[in-house]
Amino acid sequence: MSEAANIKTELTQGLKALHLPTIRQSYEEVARQAEREALSYERYLHELVERECEERQENRISKMLRESQLPLEKSLSGFETRRLPAKAARQMRALLDGGFLERTENVLVFGNPGSGKTHLLEAVGQELVRKGHRMFFTSCEMLVQELLIAKRDLKLSKLIKKYSRYEGMIIDDLGYIRQTREEMEVVFTLLAERYERGSVLLTSNLPFSKWEGIFKDPMTTAAAIDRLVHHSMIIELNIPSYRLEQRRANCRLQARRGGNPPPRPVRPSRKSLSLRRGRQVLDRSGLKTQQETMGNGWGPEASPFVGHALRFALNTPPYGRRRASLRARPTRSQN
Fold this sequence. Notes:
This protein is an alpha/beta fold. The chain is built from 16 helices and 5 strands.
């Protein structure tokens, strides 16, 4: 074997041992480029090191994006910034520099369903990951389940320590699904541990005045709000639903193209109206509805208890009063 072949073999093995895969794959190509362009040894080495650093940075970002659990399709390029109010747009641009992570400030985004709360934080989260920040995304429902399992297995502190590795933690839809007091206690424990140690970015469609229904206790609610608001940026998205606007735009486009118009709403029948009034009566009387007991609506599969209760409600005041008065009204023959 020639001396050049020995050098190539030893160089390849040495680069492999040093875990420099990009240099190992490209040093021959860059060497030929250096010969053509008469590059100095320093320029040749600089080109190799630069390629290795770029490849490592790309791999690191890809790994951080996988760990963050952020949906990659919800990027900043796909977010319609023009829909945002002027103040919210300025706040979003301020978030992209990542300074709030260094100051351990929280970000609270409020708005109606479909206003783009989740997409905004997901897009911001992706941009921050690409700048080298460690982020983590989860829904409140999944977070509660993870914390409860860890608490049951006596590993809650270990899981909270794992979350502390992330500079920013995005919690989506706080209060969207009603939780028990025990479930929200573990969420409060997490928020308390991250206070002034890591940023929390959360979305909610409930204002602070209704958070007592989330945490089930006035003192816990006040403590949670106090920790979140102390160092925070609050973004309000008081805009129409994006999904509803998109649906209307599709309907208008379809109408212009001569397609079938959207279906007209069906007028409810007298029977369905009676059932609806029966539900309202049962709700006011405190009786459990079929939806609460079986989750199957008010169809034929309803339990006998609900059927009897519905018939009783429809035959008692105020809805049974008219029937009773009609039966008591005298006929012509009696006059």
